[in-house]
Specification:
about 120 residues, 6 helices, about 60% helix
């Protein structure tokens, strides 16, 4: 998916009453500034590979905390928090291991949302 498609997806997500209530607090922005965007992207990869990419996720729907890290907030804002939301909003099939291409797409969506929040 190209950047324009990601922008369109983010606009669509912002129209959701639930998704639009998520935003980065000042402490989240400070954490990003302190650690750098590349480190945050690395954290996003780690979280997605461990919590979202496996075929079977025992606690699917509850694996992403609502706070505690900017990536977690971004996941809820971008509907990349669980396999059900991934399927509903991004049409990524459930009950299969995510491909590297799907993981890269998810990371790009998350990181673009974060970039928009920190400006």
């Amino acid at each position: 998916m190209n950047n324009k498609e990601i922008q369109n997806k983010l606009l669509s997500l912002k129209k959701s009453k639930f998704r639009s209530r998520f935003y980065l607090k000042e402490a989240d922005k400070e954490y990003i500034a302190k650690n750098g965007i590349d480190k945050i992207k690395g954290h996003a990869y780690d979280f997605i590979k461990k919590r979202l990419a496996p075929k079977e996720i025992p606690n699917d729907g509850k694996q992403t905390p609502m706070r505690g890290h900017p990536v977690f907030i971004a996941q809820h804002a971008t509907a990349t928090c669980c396999r059900g939301c991934l399927y509903k909003w991004h049409h990524i099939s459930q009950r299969k291991e995510l491909t590297e291409q799907e993981i890269d797409y998810i990371i790009e969506v998350i990181m673009e949302w974060i970039r928009q929040e920190i400006v």
